[in-house]
Amino acid sequence: MTRLMGGLAAVAVGFLVLPVLALLPMSLSGTRWLALPPRDLSLRWYATFFTDRDWIEATLVSLRVAAGATALATAVGTLAGVGLARGRFPGRDLVRALALSPLVVPVIVLAVSLYYVLGRAGLVGTLTGLVLAHALLGVPYVVLNVEAVMRGFDVRLERAARILGATAWQAFRRVTLPVIRPGVLAGALFAFVASLDEVVVAMFLSGTSAITLPKLMWDSITQDELNPVVTAVASLQVAVAVLAFGGSELLGRRAARLALAAEGLPESGSAVPAPAGGGGSPARLDPAPLRLVRVSKRFGAVPAVDDVSLEVQPGELVTLLGPSGSGKTTLLNLVAGFEPPTAGEVFLGGRPITRESPNRRNIGMVFQDLALFPHLTVFENVAFPLRLRRVPEPTIRGRVGEMLELVRLAGFGARQPRELSGGQQQRVALARALAFRPPLLLMDEPFGALDRALRERMQLELRQLHRRLGVTILFVTHDQEEAMALADRIVVIDRGRLQQIGRPEELYEAPANPFVAGFIGESNLLPCVVIASDGARLRVRTDGGAELDVAPPAAGPIVPGTPRQLAVRPEALRLHAGGPPPPHALPGVVEEVVYLGSVLRYLVRINPAEVLVVRAPRQAGVRPVATGAPVQLEWDPSQLLLL
Amino acid sequence: MDRRTVDISRRHALRLGLGATALSALPSRRAGAQALTGSGEVVVCTWGGSYADAQKKAFFEPFEKESGIRVRVVGVPDLAKIHAMVSNKAVEWDVVDAEGQMMLRLAAQDMLERVDYSIVPRADLIPELATDWGIGSVAYSYVLGWSAKTYATRQPAGWKDFFDAATFPGRRAMYAQPLPALELALLADGVPKDRLYPLDVDRAFKLLERHKPLINVWYKSITQIPTLMRGEEVDLIEATSTRMIELQRGGVAVGWTFEQGAWMQSFWIVPKGSKNRENAMKLMAFYTRPEPEAQFTQAFPLGVPSRKAYALMPKETLALLPTSPGNIERQFRVDSGWWAKNVEEITKRWLAFVG
Amino acid sequence: MSRTGALRGLLPLLPLLLVLLVLLVYPVGRLLVSGLAGGGGLAAFRELATVPLYRDVLLRTVRLSLTVTLACLLLGYPVAYTLATAPRWLGAPLLVLVVVPFWISLLARSFTWLVLLQRNGVMNQLLQAAGLSKEPVPLVYNELGVYVGMIHILLPYMILSCYGVMRGIDPTLLRAAANLGASDWQAFRCVWIPLSLPGVAAGSVLLFVLGLGFFITPALLGGGKVTTVAVLIEANVREALNWPLAAALSCGLLAATVLALAPAFRLLRFDRLVAPR
Fold it and tell me: Tell me, which fold does domain A44-261 have in CATH?
């Protein structure tokens, strides 16, 4: 199979290459007519090409036209490529089809049409006419290349630039453009070569004083008995094409590398270097309160954020906790200004910022994948917001140094982001976000990509930083342990709606609803019905038939018969294996025991429908209860929650 | 019309013959030749290839040296283009080597500048080649050519043989233009030379349609003739005398004949609104000098407008000119007037035929 | 999506839209309209529909394009396969060999074939030396020459299109097929070919559309006998100054292009042609 394919492939490739191989020898034939094999070897046709006035002029015209056309095509095509890659507007597919149409519309139709229209405008036979026509033909190449490189481009880089203070144009110029430059250059190269080679349009639009090289070649072929100079020109074109192709390959590889680097490679567990700390402690920031009033965000019919109101006190560290898709990142984006809310208002330090663009909000933000600018050094990354605010150079140097010391990366200023480990990149992102002393810091699951040990270390460092600087922090995470570890208060959010706000212990001990109970810590949740009430106690029956006494909830009297959820923390149940059953106990059988180090986790079946999770501290010397053993589960009515 | 054509030819030939003997004693340099000077450039539109190369060497480069006016050579004369240029007032060509019928048509539409005979000396020009609208450039011929290798024993003698596949098997090429294809078809069909005009167009197309499968190549440009013959692509070809001569001189085994050849006169014309009108006139003036003309005919044996030039040519060259006695009688002259009137319609029909 | 957001998204595209409008939409539109205006209404179009010549030319153009597409598929598929499955030391130089001819001037490639295919040219000499023919075979100045020229120019497009898709085929799939009992041929037929079809389809559509518009190659290598629609358009503009007819022909060519292209436009991943990585 492979051999058959290989054989056919060899034939096809041989066929492709044959004329290329024939060109060079033909160009060396000294005869006035094309001869293969060549006779009277000589370089006279190359000499003619370099000395004959007409050929030189035609080459210059071609180069000039190509340069002009490429410049125009690159400018127009880059903007269009970026716009198409990102834009979400109606008719995008049509615009894209139009942008690429010069590639497939028959060239003869384009040529004749342009000849018709440009002729009336007096542009036939001028450089301008050729430049315009070739620009049209070159635009698709640029658009395609820019689109391709934009696909690998992290749009969050632009958002990072915006929240650091850049306007849309500044972000484009300082961040997007440098990063996608290899793609732009590749497209420009394609457009350039295409213009140099173009024949059909040139046939119609060339004139006596503006005749391109391909047109002259065409004239030579059709009117000049196949002048051998054409073979010399073609051989030179081969050389140029090979160089161009090689160049574009190299640029492409560089673009791929840069795109990869911007993704913030995860930490591999290496030790975090600790250059000598110390230095002066930076001034405390001036924190501001954040207030959201009835904020909603709909995407079409779906509400991503639904009527959320919350207040973050100045200097507080509040975490937004929720599962994926709960709307927490959307909420953060609303605060940052990347999306306008469908309803509601946002106030920062008492000032409404709902309609302000991100670069004017003066909020610091650390993104989920860091969004460090790959084309800038660590120093320049941190200095970026300061430069936008036109801070004088010496101040910049001082502040950047201060920030890098703060995050324990002093001396790393000259490094490139891609040279740093994941944890180090984290610190740079933090330093950059704080460099301009924002009153509020937003953090979008920044530690998600780190391994456990590093994550815990970063959490510790963040708390230390928070205490030192006193900045207000809004921290988004889906990890409830992280939320509990960091937060002064936790905001639990699910499907766009606020579930509960409170201190970690409040949420843990008094969850407001089954979702919070299940999300924070581990909980046994049993659907049940209230069957009796006597003021001090309620009796509930679970769906599985178990009957338990529960302390009435603070919320008020419960009508018997209403379906509720019973929430029991695993550690609120005590396992008794053998001995007289204590009051408030359920009989059960151990189904599974999991040894978790300091804690034993039992799965105990109390009836055919329900299994309870029980956690018991491991006691040295005491053997865990075996699977299959009958046990009594003791509970404390005040520890059970009716939701 | 036919008789007049013949008469013109004979008068032409007589004048040449007379001129040749009577003027052979004259000194080679023209007495009182004006030195031409100027500035700027002039754009010449001519027929490309080795023809244009020969013109460059004989006329354009010496003219540049003497006058300081830069000569740009472009190709190929195209009536539609000239028409468009003059209409749009964007004339790019200053002087054009145009076919007779092109000149007549353009003149009829007032699209040409008159020849400025205060700059262009007309005294020595063959009278009918010094017209109001242009001076003669070259007289050239379409002839029957063949591969000497293929037809070693028996050569074709005329256009009837060209279309006779039974007697002369082989591959054939024709010029993809109705002029002079229609005339050649009529000759092949038996119409005598002096009764060609007005052309029986339907009869010509009928014959061409019948024999169309015989034609293996319809070449678009005269310059393809050498490539075709060198590549041994075809055995019989409608060619020009000069290209066949060039091939023979280059050692390629070809044969050709003036028999039943079609000769025509082309003219240098200046499109109306030309940006370098005066320079164009100066170039035309240079063209009328006998020395460069004689030099040109060495490379391209063609009829030239200056009588004195013929005295400067060697006998061998004279023998090759289409308009020399001995050659001119065997051919017929293409009637530019007829073509000027009818070419537009015929082109449409021709495109439909050849496509 | 907010309206201002949508409008802002359109902003970077404004220069492009301007360029397209002025240099593409307007000129082509004007040309097509002139076809209607100049020749007195639909006269040119009627001529197009009635005169058999134009039908023949169109059919010839379509036939040419279809045949070339098929030939490129047969020749190009193995090359793409080899590129996709070969080890790097073979694949990289092979890719260069495929792409470099792509970049050489169309003109140079066409007339090189002219020289190669002449009656006393290299190809005929080889054929006679190999004993495949006693006499020189007419290889050029006819449809055969045009086929050779067109295939040579369009083949790289087909190769790159197929290669682009094949690169994404997981080679483990073939191993899985073998493990499950498939022979080489069966694995190829049942796994590889179906998965490579998007590239084949896209390449074929692209080639067909490009082939319809070919002008230079038929003009140079056809000996004046291979008139395609593009050649006819050019002749009508330059020699006959028959704008209405040229416009009508252009209209026809554009219509054929759009018809062939429209259903498949999403399919066409042009980026594979410019960024074969």
Answer: MetI-like fold (1.10.3720)
Contacting chains of C (3 CB pairs or more, <8 Å) are: A, B
Instruction: Name the domain count of chain C.
Output: 1
State chain C's mean pLDDT as an integer.
82
CATH number of the domain that C83 lies in? 1.10.3720.10
Residues B20 and B100 in one domain: yes
ipTM of the complex: 0.85
Interchain contact, A186 vs C274, CB within 8 Å: yes
Test C103 with A241 for CB contact under 8 angstroms. yes
Instruction: Cis check for the bond before B180: say yes or no (omega within 30 of 0).
Output: yes
With cut-offs at 50, 70 and 90, classify the pLDDT of residue C273: low
For the stretch B16-50, pLDDT in tens is: 433 333 333 333 344 445 677 888 999 999 987 78
Which residue of B74, B88, B227 is in closest CB contact with A226? B227
* Closest-CA residue of chain A to C220: A222
Domain hosting residue B236, numbered range: 142-264+337-354
Region of poorest pLDDT, from A64-73, B158-167, C26-35: C26-35
Joined together, the tokens standing for residue A570 give 């695993």
Q: Does B84 touch chain C (CB under 8 A)?
A: yes
Task: Report yes or no on C254 lying in a domain.
Answer: yes
Residue A193, judged by CB atoms within 10 A of its CB (0-12, 13-18, 19+), counts as buried
Interface-testing mutation among A55, A221, A224, A230, with chain B (most B C-beta atoms within 10 A): A224
pLDDT of residue B31: 40
User: Residue A404: what pLDDT?
Assistant: 92
CB atoms under 10 Å from CB of A608, counted, come to 8
Chains touching A by CB (3 or more pairs below 8 Å): B, C
Q: Is A36–C30 a contact, with Cβ atoms under 8 angstroms apart?
A: no
Domain A522-642 has CATH 2.40.50.100: yes
Whether C144 shows a pLDDT value over 60: the answer reads: yes
Q: Are residues B122 and B190 in the same domain?
A: no
CB pairs < 8 Å spanning A and C: 274
Chain C residues within an 8 Å CB radius of B354: 224, 227
My answer on whether B102 and B250 are in the same domain is no
Using a CB-CB distance cutoff of 8 angstroms, which residues of chain A are in contact with residue B49? 223-225
A373-407 tens-digit pLDDT: 888 899 998 998 898 888 899 999 999 999 999 88
A366 phi and psi angles, rounded to 5 deg: -110, 125
Nearest residue of chain C to residue B79 (CA atoms):
C239
Query: Which structure tokens are listed for A121?
Result: 């405008």
Q: Do A36 and C1 touch (CB under 8 A)?
A: no
What is this structure's pTM? 0.74
Domain A290-505 fold is Rossmann fold (3.40.50)
Contact C101 A86 (CB under 8 A): no
Shared-domain flag, residues B211 and B348: yes
B107, B123: one domain: yes
Amino acid at A103: L
Percent pLDDT > 70 in chain A is 93
Q: Do C78 and A115 touch (CB under 8 A)?
A: no
Write out pLDDT tens, residues C188-228. 888 888 888 888 888 888 889 889 988 889 988 988 888 89
The helix (H) or strand (E) run that includes residue B46 is none
Provide the pLDDT confidence category of residue B8 given band limits of 50, 70 and 90: very low
Say whether C254 and A197 touch across the interface (CB within 8 A).
no
- Are B182 and B324 found together in one domain? no
Long-range CB pairs of B198-201, under 8 A, 24+ apart, other chains included: B198/B1, B198/B338, B199/B338, B199/B342, B201/B342, B201/B346, B201/B349
* Helical H segments across A435-551, by residue range: 452-469, 480-486, 504-509, 514-519
Q: Compute the distance between CA of residue A532 and CA of residue A543 in angstroms, rounded to an integer.
A: 15
B213: contact with C, CB 8 A cutoff: no
Section A301-310 average pLDDT: 88
Q: Can you give the CATH number for the domain in which B213 is found?
A: 3.40.190.10
Instruction: Please report the pLDDT score of residue C38 as a whole number.
Output: 56
CB atoms within 10 A of CB A130: 32
